[in-house]
Amino acid sequence: ERQTNEEGEDTTFGEDNGFVFFATRSGKVKKTGLSQFRNFRKDGIIAIKLDEGNDLVEVKLTSGNDDICLVTSAGYCVRTSEQNIRPMGRPSAGVAGVKPREEDHLVALTIVNDETKLLVASENGLGKRTSYDEYMAKGRGGKGMKTMNVTEKTGRVVGALSVFEDDELMLMTSVGQSIRIRCADVRETGRAAQGVKLVNLKNGESLQDIARVVPDDDEVEDVDADNPEDGDVVGQEA
């Protein structure tokens, strides 16, 4: 993830500042000093040891003093300080960040920012924004608190992001459809709510993933033209 300063200029971490933070499907997390990735080979270097059956879900750059949130498919979230996770070498597998319940797994890692909200989206096209103030920071390795009321109606959580009010999102569906929406149109609700409809999905179609979009200035006026008519439903009651 590209890091910028307040002026939008690219920044890099110094020798002793900054970490690469990993989160895996099983709920394990790891942080490694960015300086350990300074020397690399053409065929790559090992970044994390993955246990059999485990997958890497997300990687972020952190400052060493950030709070992070780990979100699971069953709608639970653990917020903890990254200071609760000691730095480890590249070949290590990490430690438990969240302990998913049976048939649950981690789907997203976000970095807490006082100016952003936690946006969560489910496979049946529902989503919501919630203030990070509703998530109490605790130690690592817990089962988490509710971040979405997951039901048959909502389907499982497929993604979560830290978003600003003026951000835009790209929603990707199982049939290859992409819908662009404004975060400001997604209602802010409490932790345990189901959320509102982000997009209309056809029979058998599901939401697969969400991504934050940073548009160029000349793109802003054309956003509405990118949205199909049946996707223009952001904010409708589920």
CATH superfamily: DNA gyrase/topoisomerase IV, subunit A, C-terminal
Low-confidence stretches: 223-231
> What is the overall shape?
globular
Helical amount: under 10%
What is the level 1 CATH name?
Answer: Mainly Beta
Largest beta-sheet details: 5 strands, antiparallel
> What is the count of β-strands?
16
What's the mean pLDDT score? 87
CATH architecture: 6 Propeller
The number of distinct helices, counting runs of at least 4 residues, comes to 1
Supply the helix-strand structural class.
mainly beta
- In N-to-C order, the SSE pattern is EEEEEEEEEEEEEEEHE
How many domains, in number, for the residues? 1
Cα(first) to Cα(last) distance is 32 Å
Portion in strands: 25-35%
Gyration radius, to the nearest Å? 18 Å
State the CATH topology: Neuraminidase
Strand numbers in spatial order across the main sheet: 11-8-9-14-16
